[in-house]
Specification:
Layout lengths: L1 H36 L4 H8 L3 E4 L4 E4 L11 E2 L5 E3 L15 E4 L13 E7 L2 E7 L5 H12 L6 E7 L4 E6 L4 E2 L17 E4 L12 E4 L15 E7 L1 H8 L17 E9 L1
Parallel strand pairs: 3-10, 4-5
Antiparallel strand pairs: 1-2, 6-7, 6-14, 7-13, 8-9, 8-14, 9-12, 11-12, 11-13
Length: 274
């Protein structure tokens, strides 16, 4: 009899702890929503106002729609498996022979020839996306993407976010906390966001992009205009339908506007120079 009573007390304590944890989670989500909303222009704030925050106590899932494209405020070294480079980063071979490297101490030097043209073919589990990289307007950002691609940084990474509220799919790691270990400077300003562009994701702070990127699949991305410098460094020339198909996989779950309903893997990014 005493054992049953102790068991009931233990169960009550466990239930109380779980209830407190759910309450703390709801409070954290609300705080995050307020923080993201600060400083957003009126037009964007109107979009933010219709965002939904829902917590289902039975399943403890959280759904958040966010009008930012951000990596974690406290990015960590990538969870992708690969070698690491200490000290200066050297330029990788352009023939695909470089050892897979996913952690770097310093940003790379200028490795591309700004007078040449560069195309990236992103091979995903849903099909190929071909991107013409903009060396004319964003040579430093293109250089960073080319170097990481040639080091196979993006091999077996994921597109982990699909957000129809701003029409973006985000990748370049396993989660939005992944980082190659360094950041790069923002390049250019005053960007207008439209279908088919690829841009760097970053935190709310300037000059905080690293390896993550997002691809725009529709007109809702215009909500990002004026929110910060997400550097646009290329345009899709083939495979926009693939990007839209990935967006169509949106499950609506997660705290970044949604995630694909099945795993979407980037097997490799191949760089062609001409």
């Amino acid at each position: 009899m005493g054992t049953d009573k102790r068991e009931r007390k233990k169960n009550n304590r466990d239930m109380a702890r779980a209830a407190r944890a759910r309450a703390a989670k709801r409070a954290k989500v609300r705080r995050r929503g307020l923080q993201v909303g600060l400083g957003i222009p009126a037009a964007v704030l109107a979009i933010w106002a219709v965002a939904t925050f829902a917590v289902d106590d039975s399943s403890d899932t959280v759904e958040v729609t966010d009008t930012t494209v951000a990596v974690s405020e406290t990015p960590t070294l990538t969870t992708l498996v690969g070698a690491s480079v200490s000290g200066d980063t050297t330029c990788p071979a352009d023939d695909g022979s470089a050892e897979r490297t996913t952690t770097f101490e310093k940003a790379p030097p200028m490795c591309i020839d700004e007078k040449k043209s560069y195309t990236a073919t992103m091979s995903t589990s849903e099909g190929d996306i071909v991107i013409e990289l903009d060396t004319k307007n964003t040579p430093k950002t293109v250089n960073n993407f080319v170097v990481l691609s040639r080091y196979k940084y993006y091999d077996d990474s994921y597109i982990f976010r699909t957000d129809p509220s701003i029409d973006i799919i985000q990748g370049g790691g396993a989660t939005n906390t992944d980082s190659p270990g360094y950041t790069i400077e923002d390049e250019g300003s005053g960007y207008k966001y439209s279908e088919g562009q690829i841009a760097m994701a970053r935190t709310a702070n300037p000059n905080s992009a690293g390896g993550q990127f997002f691809i725009i699949t529709g007109s809702n991305a215009a909500a990002l205009d004026g929110q910060g410098t997400y550097v646009v460094f290329g345009k899709i020339t083939e495979g926009l339908g693939v990007a839209k198909a990935i967006m169509a996989l949106n499950s609506g779950s997660g705290d970044l506007g949604g995630a694909p309903s099945r795993e979407v893997k980037i097997s490799k990014v191949t760089i062609t120079e001409s």
